[in-house]
Amino acid sequence: MSDPPQRCGMRDTCGSKTLFGKQLPCPYDGPPKEPSSSTRKLLLDVCGPEFYTGPVCCTHDQLQTLEDNFRIVDKIVSSCPACKNNFHDFFCKFTCSPNQGTFLNVTSTQTTNSNQIAVKSVDFFVGPQFSQGFFESCRDVKFDASNGYAMDFIGGGAKDYQGFFRFLGEEKDLGSPFQINFPSISTTPFSPLNPPPRNCSNNDLDSRCTCIDCPSICPVLPDLPDSESICHVGVLSCLSFTLILAYSLAVVGFIVGFLIQNTIRKRRERRYERLALSGETPSSPRTLVGAASLDDHNPSLARGLIDPVETVQPKQYRLNSLLRKFFYKLGLTTATYPMLTCAVVFTIIGLINIGWTKFDIETDPVRLWVAPNSETRVQKDFFDEHFGPFYRPQQIFITSVDQENHPVLSFRHLQYVFELEEHIRQDLVSTPNNLTLDDVCFAPAGPGSPCVVQSVTGWFGGSLDGYDEDTYIDRIERCARSPVECLPDFGQPLAPHYVLGGTRDSKLNTYLDAPALVITAVLSSSVSPPDPELQQAFERAAEEWERTLRAFLEGVKERSPAEVGLNVDFSTGVSLEEEIGKEGNTDVRIVVGSYIAMFLYVGLTLGGGGSGSGSSARAAQNGSKGWKLHWRAAMSWIRNYTLTSHTLLALFSLVLVLLSISTSVALFSLIGVKVTLVIAEVIPFLVLAVGVDNVFLLMGELERVDAIHGLYAGNNNSLNGHRSRGDERAAAEDHGIADNVDNEARMMSPTRTTRSARHFPYPAPHNHQTSSLSSYSSAPSSAYPNPSYLPPPARIALTLSLIGPSILLSTLAEAVAFLLGALVPMPAVRNFALYAAAGVVINGLLQVCLLAGVGIGLDARRIEAGRMDCIPCISLPGQIALPEDENDRNTLDEQPISPDRSHFNNDHDPARVTGSGSSGWLARFFKRYYVPFLLKPAVKVVVMIVFGGIFVAGIIGMQGIELGLDQRLALPASSYLVSYFDKMDQYFDVGPPVYFVVRDVDVTQREVQQKLCGRFTTCEKMSLSNILEAERTRDRNEALSTLSSQLQSHPLFINPDELSLLSTRSSSYLADPAASWIDTFFAWLDPEMDTCCRVRKRNPSIPCRPRDGARLCRPCFEGREPAWNVTMEGFPEGEEFIQYAKWWLTSEAGEECPLGGREGFSGSVAFGTGSDGDEIVASHFRTFHTPLRSQSEFIASLASARRIAESITESTGVEVFPYSPHYVFFDQYLTITSTTQMILGLGLLSTLLITSIFLGSLRSGGIVTAVTGMVVVCVMGMMRIEGVSLNAISLVNLVMAEGIAVEFCVHVARAFMSAGSGSGYGASAGSVWGFGVADRAKSQKERDERMYIGLTSVGPSVLSGITLTKLIGMCVLGLTRSKLLEIYYFRMWLTLIIAGALHGLVLLPVVLSVAGGAALPAQQEADEEWMTSVIRSGYEYAPFLADDDSVSSE
């Protein structure tokens, strides 16, 4: 069957629509014609050898027009021969094919301006094979200058061939002059054009493309290394499942073991009862078990337990003895010479505070959170030095109040946006320097050229003139589909996702439904990096204009909802720093409030006072005399309260806290360590929480000392009912005591073994020597109500010798824990650690030197002198006595309150000596109820099970901790930036830019060029450009399955898809093709691009300007030998490369030559300075990240970019590093997990060493360390529930948690180790496995006794002093409006306080009573004190008595 006859559908040109319009073809239904020789030659040049012979349907004029159009397109797609040749074939056949009539149908015509009939529209029938192949060959071709695709320019960003053809066929000024339709189904007699298309992966040179433009031929990248896989058992991770299973089995085993032990114990009890009834075993029903147990091993030691003052200890713990001696002498000296002590200490403090003259605050976030020598910081500095600091963006989001009925892209709203932008561009002038946007904006074409303002107004040329409510819609839709047709004044296409928010939402039917408009103005000093002085001048100018813009937009934001129904949210370059500064100012009130609350609490809690309840009751019973009794009772209460309160002492303690903070700041300011916001916010709370605690410990210990050595301790009859203080002092003087003060000083040393501690009361001129028992014989015992009385300096010295080592232990452990934070390279954390450690140490020194010796010492003297608190110059009258009638006889026998806070009776147990302050009932509660209950065996089991469960839950919860810090938390709740960040997360579909920087290589050498390029045949297969493209197109589903172990493991309850976002290697996070400056530069040299690189014909060393005509210029490489070709053989090298590169970087990109480098690449190449000015020292390849919504995605983008850069360096040997503005802030998160583990691990190790040394027991130190670690685990386990992420701030809090957790534990532990230390059986106490069953039982009871004594001694102080003081401060902090303070301080610290108190007062006593170490030996004075107190108070703790119940208690 013969072929159908050849015929045309159109031929030649018949004029144009307008005077300056493009020529239109004429309809022609006839046979093709043979071209002339010149036409044939032009046809072969334009369309190739396929038209070597035969007639055609085009003329010479049509071919010239086609050649001009191809010349424009080729500059965009020439890098991919398959796309270029398919494009040529498509339009050559459309215009010239002799069989044109078989696939082209003219559907309408029109009359031109020359009154000729021309084509108006045609149907072009194209087969699906060629259609799809043509589109696929061009789909992935890149256009480096725009960081985008050629399809954005030649196909309007089409996603399929139908959209591609639709764009090609649309009638428009920069496209086809007539409408071309592409029906999907051909009708008779037409048959579709369907030749085989060229494929980019074909091996022939006319088709083969490079990896950059043809992903199918890209090298296969090695699989990402598998990290540790996260296994699951159901919804639980394997770790969680294992922990829960192990804990469950341990609990079951523990309970079974307890039941078995209980059964054995009951059988032993019945056996014991039978032996007791048979009379074989003597029993002593009211003797101490500790003594009985010792009696079996060493009768002398048993006697020592009951009467320790009769026993001389052969062994001592030397460190403890030295510490007690030191603190005794320190307390005695400071209390004896308070004024001298104040003068010396305040002189030293004053000299240090001179450092305030060098006080400075660090506000630069880079210098705050990034170590100076960190890799990211060094890379940022390199980038800023060679390419200039990053742009300062000013961004506005505009949304509609009622998007459904009045969309943001309505014509009325668009008019308002144009007016707003016009005012910002032209009328917004700053003060005082009258700066406009043009003075500070980024102008890529140089000073005076248009500013980069990305806005929808750019699609309209900056004006709505000529558009109305009907025509503007088509303009928006067309520009959104083909941004290249609507270039703004600065010449770069504006993709819709740059100016329309939420356009990537699949639910949008049209761009007009976009929910937000985005306006972004970019400020920059210049294209090339300026010198430092110019940069500083620019930054000052930019900040001035930004403040003006911010003030203007604040007014717009307030007015626009009511005026036009629009919400305006914005951010300027100065916004973030200003708003964070506002937040810091609001925190001051919270800090002040905490200090006031703490002052009130300390003042009221330490205050004494009496109770008038007994007198009031008597007044009610006495009828008519009642008012007199009420009056006297009230006056008595007022006198007692004003005498025994400690308001001045509370104020003094807070002053010392403030002084320690001030000194710490001054000290480090003196040596050049700047203050940070973290320090300003945290240190006041930290030092307050740590410092105030010791006041309660000191006062609690002093009260116990006063119970034995106070003025009225142990003597109830000396007052004779109502003896006044003046009478008491007169009696003392009558006995000659005061006269002998200057002659003798009889002070008790804390290590002197004496039968009692009798000393003279007024030690002013004493010689600090320890008196013997006989030295006291010269003083009549009746001189004072208490024969064991010690004057205030001696009592302070004894108090400090007892509690001082404990304070030193806690202070040292806390300071070391904080100092370990200095190992973190982040300046904010390091500086905090230094300030915190110094603050804690200075506060501890001030407390043992000033608070104990001066503050408490003077307060004790004031009380004994009968002077009023707050106004010590007023001396109070003697105790007011009530009438001695029969009804009041019992009243006079009651216990009046003594000035030294002790009752006038012989019942001086630790629970009662605290007077009527708030700690009195607490001490009684501890002694009578809490401690006996806690030490019951069954309760111990429950406690260990519960806290074991808490520990397991904490470990499980730790797995869910996220990384990062949402910057919105650092802002005030009312800040306008909060809504801005919300809008950005919701609507902005552009990720941050990322630059792959190449340095320390000579790019003028061919070998290096081939390692960087990607568009030429001799470029290395694994070159930088090829790797970037391959990474960008890496299979994301496969990549998302690769999780990195550098981030946290799988949380307990989280969707695995969400977890994949936490992977540091989940994908490339690269959204756009990389802009390869070297490929674009070499393409610009292509002589076929005859309008790009041109030189003067007469002098090739002079480049041509764009306006120079072809008569004067020629292509740079025209006639060059070797010629320019894709093998790179004729490409420039050495100095020639530098010369052409400089020409290219100054050439303008436009319609004639879109490959010019000035707009797109002028900042991509950095030349040296001075003598190195002709050397390229660095260059970068620019691309963009995918939109990053969460903190984990920001972290992952950095990790992925680093991995890609490392792979490029490994493959090419060229040093490459990635840079993006956010990297410097997220660098910490790549190592923060390991840093946290290191810091907390070293902290626990230091705690173990310090506590073991000070407690004299590795076992007890290990227990304290373990409990401290459990507190930290508990805090970390709650972080996910509380919404706390792991970052520098929470790391600081964890370091603090470890230090403060030690404080909750060490006082109880040391009290446990000190209790019973003179009994002599401590050496065997801890050897639970060393004896038989009976020995273990006795050892257990010994530990119970010690824990009872220790916990009743310091437990109330730990609860009222350490716990409640911190709790009150945190409650005030809970009132803050700052989300940052609420989440990262209030929540975390509240958890820490509760967890620390529970572990320190519940778990630690239980564990120590079960497995605590041996008691400290040879501390006879401590033994004398607690045993005297125990014996005098009728010590009757049932489980410790050898009655019928004691044996059953183990």
TrEMBL record:
<keyword id="KW-0445">Lipid transport</keyword>
<dbReference type="Pfam" id="PF16414">
    <property type="entry name" value="NPC1_N"/>
</dbReference>
<feature type="transmembrane region" description="Helical">
    <location>
        <begin position="796"/>
        <end position="820"/>
    </location>
</feature>
<feature type="transmembrane region" description="Helical">
    <location>
        <begin position="1238"/>
        <end position="1256"/>
    </location>
</feature>
<dbReference type="Pfam" id="PF22314">
    <property type="entry name" value="NPC1_MLD"/>
</dbReference>
<protein>
    <submittedName>
        <fullName>Patched family-domain-containing protein</fullName>
    </submittedName>
</protein>
<dbReference type="InterPro" id="IPR032190">
    <property type="entry name" value="NPC1_N"/>
</dbReference>
<feature type="transmembrane region" description="Helical">
    <location>
        <begin position="677"/>
        <end position="699"/>
    </location>
</feature>
<keyword id="KW-0472">Membrane</keyword>
<dbReference type="Pfam" id="PF12349">
    <property type="entry name" value="Sterol-sensing"/>
</dbReference>
<feature type="region of interest" description="Disordered">
    <location>
        <begin position="888"/>
        <end position="910"/>
    </location>
</feature>
<feature type="transmembrane region" description="Helical">
    <location>
        <begin position="326"/>
        <end position="356"/>
    </location>
</feature>
<dbReference type="InterPro" id="IPR053958">
    <property type="entry name" value="HMGCR/SNAP/NPC1-like_SSD"/>
</dbReference>
<feature type="transmembrane region" description="Helical">
    <location>
        <begin position="648"/>
        <end position="671"/>
    </location>
</feature>
<keyword id="KW-1133">Transmembrane helix</keyword>
<keyword id="KW-0732">Signal</keyword>
<feature type="domain" description="SSD">
    <location>
        <begin position="587"/>
        <end position="857"/>
    </location>
</feature>
<feature type="transmembrane region" description="Helical">
    <location>
        <begin position="937"/>
        <end position="958"/>
    </location>
</feature>
<dbReference type="GO" id="GO:0032934">
    <property type="term" value="F:sterol binding"/>
</dbReference>
<feature type="transmembrane region" description="Helical">
    <location>
        <begin position="1388"/>
        <end position="1411"/>
    </location>
</feature>
<dbReference type="GO" id="GO:0016020">
    <property type="term" value="C:membrane"/>
</dbReference>
<feature type="compositionally biased region" description="Basic and acidic residues">
    <location>
        <begin position="900"/>
        <end position="910"/>
    </location>
</feature>
<feature type="transmembrane region" description="Helical">
    <location>
        <begin position="239"/>
        <end position="260"/>
    </location>
</feature>
<dbReference type="InterPro" id="IPR000731">
    <property type="entry name" value="SSD"/>
</dbReference>
<keyword id="KW-0813">Transport</keyword>
<comment type="similarity">
    <text>Belongs to the patched family.</text>
</comment>
<dbReference type="InterPro" id="IPR053956">
    <property type="entry name" value="NPC1_MLD"/>
</dbReference>
<dbReference type="GO" id="GO:0015918">
    <property type="term" value="P:sterol transport"/>
</dbReference>
<feature type="transmembrane region" description="Helical">
    <location>
        <begin position="590"/>
        <end position="608"/>
    </location>
</feature>
<keyword id="KW-0812">Transmembrane</keyword>
<keyword id="KW-0325">Glycoprotein</keyword>
<feature type="transmembrane region" description="Helical">
    <location>
        <begin position="832"/>
        <end position="858"/>
    </location>
</feature>
<feature type="region of interest" description="Disordered">
    <location>
        <begin position="741"/>
        <end position="779"/>
    </location>
</feature>
<feature type="transmembrane region" description="Helical">
    <location>
        <begin position="1263"/>
        <end position="1281"/>
    </location>
</feature>
<keyword id="KW-1015">Disulfide bond</keyword>
<feature type="transmembrane region" description="Helical">
    <location>
        <begin position="1348"/>
        <end position="1376"/>
    </location>
</feature>
